[in-house]
Amino acid sequence: MNLGALLPSAIDGLLLGFVYGLAAMGLTLIFGVTRVVNLAHGQMIAMGMFVVLAVASGAGLNPYVGVLLAAVVGLAAGVVIYVVAVDRVINAPELTTLLATFAVNLIIIGTATTLLTTSPRAVDVDMGALRSGGVTVLGTHLVAVVIAVAAAGALYAFLFRTRLGKSIRAVAADRAAAELMGINSRRMLALAFGLGTALAMTAGALLATLFSFNVLSGGTYETKSFVIVVLGGLGNPTGALIGGLIIGLLEGVTAVVIPVSWVPVIEYAVFVLILLVRPRGLLGSRQ
Amino acid sequence: MRGMRIMAAAAAAVLVVAACGSGTSSGPKTLKIGFTASQTGAQELTSKRQVEGIKLWADQVTKAGGIKLKDGTVLTPQLVSYDDESKTDRVQALYTKLINDDKVDFLLSPYSSGLIKAAAVVGEQNGKIMVTAGGADDATMEQGFTSIYQVYTPASQYLTGAIDLMLAMDPSIKKIAIVNEKDAFSTGVAAAAKPYAASKGLQIVVDEGYDTGTTDFGPIVNKIAAAAPDAILGGGHFQDGQTFAKAIFDKQVKAKFIALLVAPPEPTFGDIGAAANDIVGPSQWEASVAYDAKAAVAANISWYGPAVADFTAAYNAAFGSAPSYHSAGGYAAGLVLQKAIEDAGSIDPAAVRAALDKQDLLTLFGRIRFSTDAKTHGKQTAHQMVYVQWQAAADGSLSTKVVWPEAGRTAPIVPRQ
Amino acid sequence: MLRLRGRSRPFLPVLLLIVAVVAAVPLVTGNPSMREELFFMLLLVTLATSVNVITGYTGYVSFGHIVFFGLGGYGAFWLMQALGVHFLVAAVLGVIPAVLVAAVVGAAVLRLRGAYFALATLGILEATKAFMTNFDPAGGAVGLSFNFSIYAQYGGAKSAAELAYVFMALVALAAIAASYLVRHAKFGLALMTIREDQDAAVVLGIDPARTKVAAFVISAVFPALAGAAFFFKNGIIEPGSAFDLTRSIESLVMVVLGGVGTVAGPVIGAAVYEWLRGFLITSPALASFQLTIAGVLLLVVVLFATSGLVGVLRARFPAVREWLE
Amino acid sequence: MSSLTVRGLEAGYGGVPVLWGLDVDLLDGALTTLVGSNGSGKTTFLRSVMGLIRPWRGSVVLDGLDVTRLSAHEKADLGLVLVPEGRQLFTTMTVLENLEMGATVRRARPLMRATMDEVFAMFPRLAERRGQQALTLSGGEQQMLAIARGLMAKPKILLLDEPSLGLSPRVTMEMFTAIRALRRAGLTIVLVEQNVQLSLAIADHAYVLAHGRVELSGPAREVRELPAVRAAYLGAAE
Fold first, then answer.
1. Nearest Cα residue in chain A from D96
2. Interface test with C, best of A28, A265, A277 (most C CBs within 10 A)
3. Is pLDDT above 50 for A286?
4. CA neighbours closer than 13 Å in the CB half-sphere of residue B154
5. Segments forming the whole domain that contains residue A225
6. Domains in chain B with CATH codes
7. Is a pLDDT exceeding 60 seen at residue A178?
8. How many whole angstroms separate alpha carbon D101 and alpha carbon A162?
9. What residues 180-199 of chain A have any CB closer than 8 A to a CB of chain D?
10. Which of A271, B69, B409, C34 is deepest in the core (most CB within 10 A)?
11. End-to-end distance of chain D based on CA atoms, in angstroms?
12. How close is the nearest chain C Cα to the Cα of B62, in Å?
């Protein structure tokens, strides 16, 4: 055990936590509004990575243009997924909506695997690095944090400052009552699905600027999102962001004191424990 | 159930290379060779290389008029393969299908030790001979199999050789980090390297494993940086190895010597630019180590198959890229089988098994001989590893140089900057 | 409801007979590749039938049900490899860790409802998998493997594979029988009452906690036995194949495909699903799009045929209605 | 002029019928009350008129337009506004945001500020608590907010489902006073109540439902005097 790694690991974990949090916000937003656990979440994260790849390696543009594009594509893709696969069964039992989104997941994985292969990919972004003592912080990580915070901020401004955003919150609070107020709840559900997917793809796009990836890379981040979402309270976007930071920090710090491969064991144990002891999450409100 | 049979029949020829032979009087017979390939999943890239090697072998044999036996029979190879998705689950069902439905005569292996382990059980159950390439795991070859033959140098030798190389370069090295992927192959490599390092008086200051599919090496690299070792040994397969190298470079970890498994010998490892510089990798084969007939004479064994240069040129022409050691391994598996069939003069399993047991060849892949000891039957005993290092030329361009063994080296090893 | 509970037709014997006859075909014809395919199919029938008890009858979506398959597999494998216990004994003893986890962890997580329960089971699966990956006494990430000579005591690898197959077939038949009996006993009625309205169940004198745990334990036993057979035949066990989340979700897919909460549904669903997958994966034209096609079909079933194939058959052919439950 | 004509309305849940063919007519500017015991179909009637559940048969005609098949938000757009049983506020949102959501429909949006001033004048306590989360309000305040939110939509017809549910007698009186004030201001109102005595006291017209059918209907004053009604409802209410 060498505690020299503590500070750099904690910083790394915390920075990464912002991106985890952003991805989890997408999952939790969709759940909060539509009550659907989106099993295509991980695959949408992976698709975000490929948007950056297409923009950076394919079109030769700045990878961060890809991050922006991923958000736009995600919004559209989420709306389409909702309309095609979810709307018809929105009031059905959980099993139905879970499998509907799982079917979407299969379709995207299958198509992406065939068209893009599972070859490893990487987008080479060099944003320099800040170095001080034993701590190295890569520029790409800092930029990712800035973008993640900006995206979360934009989401909050939208949900709390605009009529459309408030309508989404109204649907989340009580779908039937929102309908009675003249809010077209289907439109809001579709929009929420779009926004959640946009967040997932944005997070994926940011991850592509940090690590290598392939078509199947979404899985790890999906389970991580589940953990974070439960930690922060299912359906609570602020909780997701904070949960992301907690998980990021936890990963960074525990990795110093125990073998790195034991970290997931701790993570999932915490996950199950939180569900048992405080199912509404650390920040979840009691309703 | 009828549907299932029809389905199986329709599936019989997923990948058919070389259909017709040269038409002698007795008529050519087809030699059916079955294997699974990872067309998707974690092993996709390296598996593709291996399959290309196998295809090239089958193509060349067909073009040369097939395998001619002493009794005048001519055999044209026909390859039958399915996608194993890089998962062990279905490997067994697919190999059973190859043996019973497709009625293949011989088996080749999938790529990677985990898949080979599962496939070998089925091959052995059915008494089919399987020549494995793409799998170096020692444990698999210590299960008491009788019909499995390993072309690769066993995993236990991958990093022990690297340790020798490292100490030859700089005897002052004391502290090392061992970081490996937690799969059958890499765990086996690390398990052999640790006691060997200790026996050389080295101190292991970081000993970590990471899951297959890991992309974030931040926590591990931070630990390494804090422990400040002189050398880093480990890795696993291509993608993680490349990512690990990049993370080490980004965090400016100082180490005089870094050796990683599998990834460095692949030409695309150089895509990470300066991060690849000075990294060493054990390789089963390098084009620049030109084994030839003369060396065979010197070692008093027979030479078999094309020369290294001819293979490389033909591979380049067929697939538009230079062969990696995985490609050569696939090709060598075909060669080994071909030679054994020729020596046996038939495709009778017992005769071919006897021929393989006796085999001691020098090929473009290097020397090949199998253990005949009951406990380790079929394990590779003669093939030698080579070590490559990415080195920068004066103009900054990177390329791999063979740095070990002395005989085949194209450049001396340099300490990492 | 009342008519469903009637037993005027010998549904169970007929269903068991059909499965048994199909399972016997490769033994009679001696076709090993068909045996391999049917082994897998019977395995899936067992998994789907078991998860249906907790998900279909009781309404608790168990995402991580494959954990019992893995625990049973590891338990039995270790007994065979380390202690040289005979397969049949090891398989039965291997059920113990699965039942313990189902009873102890089940009692805790079954308090959760809806998506929370589903996520908790997912967490248990991933936690177990991550633990086993690091647990060196069980081989860690590399797992455990047999020395080939272990099959000698069963008369060679071939007859060991046949033994595993017969065992698997019996487990599948037992799982189907158990599923039927559960559904038709008072216990099954209690489960379905819990599914419809847990609070009403309490009023009717049902103890939901105990009833649910009992159902969870029953649904854990058969996957554990199946795991023992699968890995005995495989010769190797490792965390990735023992605790595969995708396989876990697939068994739910089969349940939905066949018909949630029915006895025949999971059987038909598993058979059709595996047949379709086998067809797609080995078809030259479709192989590369197999997942896409599977996804589209699943989506169509989920969206338009909510009662599954059993529902479609019952609606289309009144004659079979009495024979399909 | 607003009128609502319901003919032969049949509806239920999951194949189980609740309404067996209701005919109901609303008079413009009048307060109509629907009374009946628990399970007589009052709430189901409101929900199917609104389109929260799909009617099986029958028609709902609003101002000469057949709206039977429209969804709830489309009906809200046409001026049919339901204040649901149990309030169903947007509990995680503030009082102000709840009111803002009330003014979603096209007609109401430009008038939002003015309407808000009106409802604040009517329920001054809401004005005091405008920044508070709806969840933190007392039961009476929540009911005020629910009605106020409905009024924000500038309804042509306001449907009130059990507005006195769970309220203390004092707050209930306040609520009924407010409803009467709305009636006096000329709003067409449908009131579904378990408090039969109070609702018959303030209503113009009454329908008595039993087992999903209209048992009798007429001017509230007359219905109140019927011996059957007195025995069945008013005796129990005292």
1. A166
2. A265
3. no
4. 22
5. 3-113+137-277
6. 29-153+289-369 (3.40.50.2300), 156-283+385-408 (3.40.50.2300)
7. yes
8. 11
9. 180-185
10. A271
11. 37
12. 23
C214, C58 Cβ separation under 8 angstroms:
no
Residue B13 has pLDDT above 50, yes or no: no
| Chains linked to D by 3 or more Cβ pairs within 8 Å | A
Total Cβ atoms within 10 A of residue B410: 15
Put simply, the answer to whether B11 touches C282 (Cβ < 8 Å) is yes
Residues across chain C? 325
Asked whether the beta carbons of residue C302 and residue A99 sit closer than 8 angstroms, the reply is: yes
* Subunits in contact with chain B (3 or more CB pairs closer than 8 Å): A, C
Determine contact, residues C269/C47, Cβ cutoff 8 Å.
no
- Identify the closest residue of chain C to B100 by CA–CA distance: C33
Q: Which of residues 211-240 of B touch C (CB under 8 A)?
A: 211-212
User: How is residue D66 annotated by DSSP?
Assistant: E
Task: Note whether A173 contacts D77, CB cutoff 8 Å.
Answer: no
Closest alpha carbon within chain A to B45: A119
Chain mean pLDDT for chain B: 89
The partner residue sitting opposite A118, judged by closest CB among B41, B216, B220, is B41
Residue of A nearest to B210 (CA): A261
Mapping DSSP to helix (H, G, I), strand (E, B) and coil, where does residue B151 land?
A: coil
Q: Is C194 on the interface with A (CB under 8 A)?
A: no
Q: What is the mean pLDDT of residues A246-264?
A: 92
- Which CATH number covers residue A105? 1.10.3470.10
Domains and CATH numbers, chain D: 1-79+158-164+189-238 (3.40.50.300)
Residues of D in contact with A170 (CB under 8 A): 90, 93, 97, 101
Put simply, whether B7 touches C (Cβ < 8 Å) is: yes
| Average pLDDT value for residue range D94-112 | 95
pLDDT, mean of residues B209-233: 92
Position B27 pLDDT exceeds 80: no
* pLDDT tier at C3, thresholds 50, 70, 90: very low
The tally of CA atoms less than 13 A away on the side-chain side of residue B209 is: 24
pLDDT mean over B30-47: 87
Is residue A235 within 8 Å of A172, Cβ to Cβ?
Answer: yes
CB nearest to A279's CB, from C112, C126, C256: C112
Compute the count of residue pairs across chains A and D with CB atoms less than 8 Å apart. Answer: 75
pLDDT value of position B277: 94
Mean pLDDT calculated for residue range C164-177: 96
The C-alpha atoms of residue C124 and residue C283 are separated, in whole angstroms, by 36
Q: Which residue out of C39, C234, C272, C292 would a mutagenesis test of the B interface target, given it has the greatest number of B Cβ atoms within 10 Å?
A: C234
pLDDT digits (tens, 9 = 90+) for B124-145: 888 899 999 999 989 889 988 9
Instruction: Label residue B3 by pLDDT band (50, 70, 90).
Output: very low
- Using a threshold of 3 CB pairs under 8 A, tell whether chains C and D touch: no
- pLDDT tens digits, one per residue of A181-199: 999 999 999 999 999 999 9
**A2: pLDDT confidence band, cut at 50, 70 and 90?**
low
Task: Judge whether C303 is closer than 8 Å to chain A, CB to CB.
Answer: yes
Is the ipTM higher than 0.90? The answer is: no
pTM: 0.88
Helix, strand and coil content of chain C, in percent to the nearest 5, comes to: 80, 0, 20
Question: Would you call C240 exposed, middle or buried from its count of C-beta atoms within 10 A (0-12, 13-18, 19+)?
Answer: buried
Q: What pLDDT, on a 0 to 100 scale, did the predictor assign at position B25?
A: 43
pLDDT of residue B16: 36
CA–CA dist B12, B20 (Å, integer): 17
User: Total structural domains in chain A?
Assistant: 1
Rounded average pLDDT over C250-261: 92
Task: Tell whether A144 is covered by a domain.
Answer: yes
| C156: CB partners within 8 A, 6+ apart | none
